[in-house]
Structure formats: C-alpha cells, structure tokens
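Render this sequence as a predicted structure.
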Amino acid sequence: MSTSSKFLMALTGAAFIVLGILCICYPGATLLSASMAIGIITLVSGFSTIALWFRMKYILPTGNLLLSGIFQILIGILFLNHNVILAVALPIAFAMWIASEGLILAIRSFDFKKFKFSRWWVLLVTGILLFGAGFTALMNPIHVAAPALSYTIGACIALFGIVDIVALFGIARIEKKI
C-alpha cells in the first residue's frame, strides 16, 4: 500500500475522530450541520476505501472493501444533496449506515484473522456493536432525542475513525507478511 494511501486513510480516520468529538460537544447544531460534514468525510472515506481495495484486491480477494467504499460514496452523495431533509430523517439514515458498516466490518475482520493480525477481534466486536446499535436505532427512530442522537453520532463516527487507525496497523502487518 502506498504511503499516500496510508496517509489518506489516517487522515480520514483522524477526521472521523475530530468530527465525532465535535458532534458530542455541540449537540444543538449537530443535526443541521452533521449532514454536510458527514457527506464530505464519508465521500473521502469511500474513495479512500476503494483505492485501498484496488491495491489489496489481489492480496485479499474479497469484495467487501469495494462494497464498503461504494456504500460510503452513495451515502456521502445522499447527505450532500439533501442535507436539510436528512436533518429531519437523520436518525433513520444514520442507523442504516451504522448497521451496514458494522456488518461489513464484522465480515472484514475475518480477512485480518487470516493474516494472523492479533487484534482482528477488535474489528469483529466493533462491527457487531455497530450493527446492533444501528439495528436498535432503526427499531425506535422517533424516540431518539436530538441530544442523544448527537452523542450517538459523535461516538459512532469517532469509532469509525479509531477502526481506520487500527486497520492501518493490520495493513502494515499484512504488508510485512507479503
């Protein structure tokens, strides 16, 4: 994996962490501004994930990285084009994103396990937790108050950033083995 791809992945991970902290600190403004910020960062992350897939597709011949990147780009475009409407529908849209990314992350963790990455289970547990959080939010979207949603958005986005940083260490280990 090229240094620029690693840098881009680290940058999107750090951006997710910063955005998560901002959502937690400013819950009142989160619903209106989160749609635009999530759209931009998700687009960047989606393109980064697809670039990673192109570099790793012969090493890890699964399509889940490509699928994750495509989902991220589609969700990013959705958030950028309909930010006011999504501010109202954000609980449902976000819950679907969290659930799908959690499921894909849980599946992707087994690729890391194949390459003997000792912390593959962190990705699995995180994926399961994210899927559970997304599914639970889909079951009760109306009962989620704006401050609670802002905290949840912030925590989940920061968690995506942490996962990207952890995945960088896994990729470095995979590259050493190859």
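Summary. The mean pLDDT is 84. The first helix runs from residue 3 to 25.
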